[in-house]
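ok new one. same drill as before - structure tokens go in, u give me an amino acid for every spot. 359 of them this time. try not to just spam alanines like last time pls lmao
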């Protein structure tokens, strides 16, 4: 089987799984699926992962070319509209990835534009970022690395002021999360003590590193955002984030927590990393070939070692061994909707179905 054939076959299996998932979940958003039965745990409104379900449907529509699949993707994207006004930095994940693949859909473009303006309004100019927000409870003046990917390109959609906000949001998060020499994925702001590091998620959270790498790759593809940094600064940050921690060195699929190398793996962290590396590989630079080779190696490992094959009792196309939350033991070796999305996006980019410069 040639390089193109394995990726094409895997993409077809993953997107066929999307069709099966749609039939199962009805009008609810899939979140994670049991690794044995393939049955999905669902949410009514989609939570922070709803955009990945819409994104998967857009990928399927692009793959099949069917009008009905495109209509289904558009309908699910429309259900994300209520999140545009929600107080959460995860609007980047929801409303960028839920609309970016909707090529030519005017309603999706209008929703993305409205969300960009709402996120720009939410920018706290004194703190220099869009706070985590209150939509999911807990302290509002918090920042987390999973509030950065998607938010950078989404803010940049809001004109020149949005570009400045995107650069500021990324810069502040990089200063906090990488500024002390150790990776700290979440910080809380206190009016008296300023920014204080949070213990949860832990510093070994590999998906957090992948999220931040993706955000940096997004910024590098936006020349107007990247221009806010000294030349080569963002490339150096990308190289730093692309190098796995010593505890996970050499592993294409990292543990969910690098401090627990014998703990559960997280294939979703690997899939996000693969997409980020493919984006970086499309930029000129001495490490482009290295990034591309590693991205394809990750995708191949995921497809051959972690995706269910046709003929099993389980549905084909399930990306297993994703870890939703290692700290709480939630869905530690499951199929995750965002893991499926980034695997499908990486395969779609590798096979030429999608131009990652647009996503």
């Amino acid at each position: 089987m040639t390089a193109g054939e394995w990726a094409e076959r895997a993409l077809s299996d993953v997107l066929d799984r999307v069709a099966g998932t749609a039939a199962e979940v009805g009008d609810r958003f899939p979140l994670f699926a049991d690794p044995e039965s393939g049955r999905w745990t669902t949410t009514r409104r989609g939570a922070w992962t709803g955009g990945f379900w819409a994104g998967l449907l857009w990928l399927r529509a692009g793959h099949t070319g069917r009008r009905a699949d495109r209509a289904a993707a558009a309908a699910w994207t429309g259900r994300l509209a209520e999140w545009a006004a929600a107080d959460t930095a995860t609007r980047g994940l929801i409303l960028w990835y839920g609309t970016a693949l909707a090529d030519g859909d005017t309603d999706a473009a209008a929703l993305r534009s409205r969300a960009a303006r709402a996120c720009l309004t939410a920018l706290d100019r004194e703190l220099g970022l869009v706070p985590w927000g209150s939509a999911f409870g807990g302290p509002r003046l918090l920042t987390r690395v999973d509030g950065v990917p998607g938010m950078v390109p989404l803010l940049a959609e809001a004109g020149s002021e949005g570009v400045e906000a995107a650069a500021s949001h990324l810069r502040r998060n990089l200063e906090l999360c990488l500024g002390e020499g150790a990776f700290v994925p979440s910080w809380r702001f206190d009016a008296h003590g300023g920014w204080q590091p949070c213990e949860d998620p832990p510093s070994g959270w590999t998906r957090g590193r992948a999220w931040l790498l993706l955000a940096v790759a997004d910024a590098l593809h936006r020349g107007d955002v990247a221009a806010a940094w000294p030349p080569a600064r963002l490339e150096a940050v990308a190289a730093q984030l692309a190098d796995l921690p010593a505890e996970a060195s050499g592993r294409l699929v990292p543990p969910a927590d690098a401090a627990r190398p014998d703990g559960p793996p997280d294939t979703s962290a690997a899939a996000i990393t693969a997409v980020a590396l493919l984006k970086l590989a499309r930029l000129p630079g001495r490490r482009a070939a290295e990034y591309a080779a590693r991205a394809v190696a990750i995708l191949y490992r995921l497809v051959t070692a972690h995706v269910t094959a046709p003929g099993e009792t389980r549905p084909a196309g399930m990306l297993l061994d994703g870890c939703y939350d290692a700290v709480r033991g939630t869905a530690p070796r499951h199929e995750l909707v965002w893991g499926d999305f980034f695997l499908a996006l990486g395969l779609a980019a590798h096979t030429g179905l999608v131009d990652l410069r647009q996503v």
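The chain has a mean pLDDT of 94. and btw The first helix runs from residue 3 to 25.
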